[in-house]
Specification:
34% helix; 5-stranded parallel beta sheet; 235 residues; alpha/beta; 13% strand
C-alpha cells in the first residue's frame, strides 16, 4: 500500500493532487502546528494586471502553538465574496469560469468553522471533480498509536507502520527530511514524487506555474487535468 500524509492545504497546487492520485491511501495530518505564511489558509491565483495574488481564509486569533485542527475560520468576515471578486477577471478568458464558480459556491455553502475540516471538505470535493478516488482519512480521527516520535521522519515511519504501508510517498520538498535507507530497514520504500508542472494557455494572461488548483481548473477541463496526472510519468 502506497501512503501519503500531508497537512490540509487550501485549494493547493496541482502537485498536491498528483500526490493524491498516485497514493493508495491519503492521511490528512491535521494535528500539525499552524504556521503563518504557509498554504493552510491561503493560495495564489492570477492577478488581473500581472503575476498573481493571494486568496485567503481569514482566521480567528489563536496562540502560535495551536494545531491546525483547532484553528477557527473567521466566518463573520465575508471571505467568500472577497474571493469571488478576486476571480472575476477570469470571466472574459477562462473557458471553465462558470463551472469553477459554481463548484466553489458548492464548497463554500458547507457550514464549517474549523480550518482543518473545511480544507478536508474542499480536498474531497476537488478530488471528486478530478475523478480521484483515493480514500482520504483524517489523522486525528484514526486513533493511531505511534509511540514517542520526534523528527518528521520518525513521524512518517510511525504512521506507515501503524497503517501497514509498504511505501511512503512524499513531495520533493521533503527529500531532505527522509532517508530511503532508514525506511528500507523498516521494510518500507520511500518514493519522492517527481512532479512536472502542467503548462496551459491563459488567454491574455501570462502562465504562472504552481498556482492554486482553482487556476488550473479555470483553463482546463477536469478530464484533461486527470489525464495529465495519469500520463505525464511512467510509474
Amino acid at each position: 500500500m502506497k501512503l501519503a500524509a500531508m497537512q490540509p492545504y487550501f485549494f493547493p497546487y496541482l502537485g498536491y493532487f498528483d500526490l493524491l492520485n498516485i497514493a493508495d491511501v491519503w492521511i490528512v495530518y491535521d494535528v500539525a502546528q499552524y504556521m503563518r505564511h504557509g498554504w493552510v489558509n491561503r493560495n495564489r491565483v492570477l492577478h488581473p494586471v500581472e503575476d498573481c495574488q493571494y486568496i485567503i481564509l481569514p482566521l480567528k486569533k489563536h496562540h502560535y502553538t495551536t494545531p491546525i485542527n483547532e484553528i477557527v475560520v473567521a466566518n463573520e468576515i465575508n471571505w467568500q465574496k472577497t474571493i469571488f471578486r478576486q476571480l472575476e477577471h477570469y470571466h472574459m478568458d477562462a473557458p471553465y469560469y462558470h463551472h469553477v464558480i459554481d463548484f466553489l459556491k458548492e464548497c463554500f455553502s458547507i457550514p464549517c468553522r474549523n480550518l482543518a475540516q473545511m480544507n478536508t471538505q474542499f480536498l474531497r470535493l476537488t478530488a471528486g471533480q478530478l475523478g480521484i478516488e483515493t480514500p482520504i482519512h483524517v489523522f486525528s480521527q484514526m486513533s493511531l498509536y505511534l509511540g514517542k516520535v520526534g523528527s518528521p521522519e520518525e513521524l512518517a515511519l510511525g504512521i506507515c507502520q501503524a497503517v501497514g504501508a509498504s511505501e511512503y510517498i512524499n513531495p520533493p520538498g521533503g527529500a531532505a527530511l527522509y532517508s530511503a535507507e532508514r525506511f528500507s530497514r523498516h521494510g518500507i520504500k520511500l518514493y519522492i514524487q517527481e512532479f512536472k508542472n502542467m503548462p496551459y494557455q491563459c488567454g491574455r494572461f501570462k502562465y504562472q506555474p504552481s498556482l492554486s488548483i482553482i487556476d488550473v481548473m479555470m483553463w482546463n477541463s477536469c478530464e484533461k487535468i486527470r489525464k495529465y496526472l495519469d500520463t505525464f510519468r511512467s510509474r
